[in-house]
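Bumping with the actual sequence this time:
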Amino acid sequence: MYIKRFRRSPGGKEATYIALAHNTIERRADGKTQTRPHLIMSLGREDSTTPQALDDLVAMATVLYERRIKSGMTPLEAVSEVKRALKPHTESVKHQDDAILESRTLGMRLLLSVVWRELGLDTALREIAKRHRVRAFDFECLVFGLVLNRIVDPMSKRAANEWLQRDAYFPEAEGWDVHHFYRALDMLHEHSDEIETRVGEALLAVSSEEDRMVFLVDTTSMFFEALLNDREIAALALAWEEAEDGNLPLRPRPRVINEPALRMQGHNKDGHAGDPQVVLASVCLRNGLVVRHRVYPGNTNDRTIAQDLVSAVEPLATAPAKVWVSDGGMTSQKLFNTLEAGQWHWLVAESPRKSAVARSLVLPVTGRYAKHPTKSQYSFKHVLLEEDDAPMQRPEAMVVVRNALDRERQLAKQQRHLEEVREALGKKGRNKGGHGKSVCAVVDHPSLKRYVAESEKRPGQYVLNTEAIRREEQLAGTRMLRTTLTEMEASELFDGYQLLQEVERNHREYKGPLALRPAYHRSAERIRAHVMLTVIAGNCVRRLEALTGCLMADLRKRFDRIQAFRVRQGGREHWITNKLANEDREVFKRLGIEALPDSWKQWREPSISARPAQMLASGSAES
């Protein structure tokens, strides 16, 4: 007795079917013997039963067969008798036990599919796939799977393929290979402008008029764990081309060369100053949705980036009034000229130490600082500049912002610095008419040197710079804003500038939960596609938070518990999901997701009863 196996491909999917069989030796007409197999019991698919059940069945059938042989039956009669005796047990062996065969995570897929359709990513990616005539894989589903993986459990593209096939409920991933993922990245980069334009229009459509007026601009850096930057890699490749036999470079020959160079050293904001990097610039609305992003070489300064972003965001600035908000590191006279030509308003930071207008017209203005109505540590001095006094020859406002907590801390620090300076100046040098080493240390110190000046009466000697001390006392805990929104209150302007924290929050989300960096891609095209995937994932996170009223960290914890289970019941396999908690049902209701099916064999995305943006608007109106 043994288990015989047959391989079949029903519906294009290969499966193994099994049967209980026994071989008997029979004599042919010519007198020779031959072995003939007899099928005693068909058991269906192998994965519908358990190895233990098959072992028990073989043992039981063997015992029955041997007993029939001992009773005097022929082998053929014994086989027929075993088949008759086991017939009542056929179904119980086929459907040995109801069991849960596997489980896959499902909850976050359901949430993501709502905003995926809302932003029009499904239709945009399908149209691109049609143009490329992609048949080896579903381009839209693959990009959806990559974004889902980045939100739930970010991995490399190779590991994401395994995650989609083994951990997530994603039946579309069957048959995918890692080269499909890299092909999708190449297609994503090729059509990045088209995709970003369509997503940007969808984001504007779900944003309020007030949100569409304000464009928040900031940059961050993204480092690579690499020893050479792209310029050094290009030089190494050239050295390989010019090398002669026996005098080859020590480093391996580069496989990827980016021209122009992209991964370069620059001012790194993550503490990886020596690593090659790229600069990621984001333009987002007041609600935190990123409508434009760009990737620049790692040594590009913020002023150059800002100038380029104005033209990139111009097609989206359709509101009657448009406001550019950025920090002082991005501003330049060229930027102000461009904004002026495009009829933009601006709200930017201005250095009170470097600005000649601030020193001459703003800081000398006396008067009490006005308190912030809700944030008591902040107070303001609001100075209006007429056209003749303003740098751009149009009315502007300068707002000096004073933070009482920072001012107290900086004044205490200044007193400690002054004590060190006075102590150093009090020490006499060895040479008559000169100064000691302690004074040299002060003069070379980056923070202390501002408090001393060379004496006019005694050459080679240093004295306290009283004017600098007074200026530092005045500027302690202060910063300055510059704007063309002259009719707004100082506290409103300050709150508007603080909206830049939304961009910073996006960047923290990219580098933290979405694992933007460190990146291991080498080609510029795939680096930009990787960044685009992360930005799309970040926008989906922001929309889900807005629609559900929950933070993404809470959504991950709650909806990771919603699983799809492949079960065997009554001999048949199908998928079911666990019972939803009431609070999870409420989230589904807010998103317009209809009830999930009790069981299914072939997955279909749940239909959405209403557009999420409409449901959110109606819910806020009722509240």
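The tokens above came from a reply further down the thread. Residues 613-623 have pLDDT under 50 and may be disordered.
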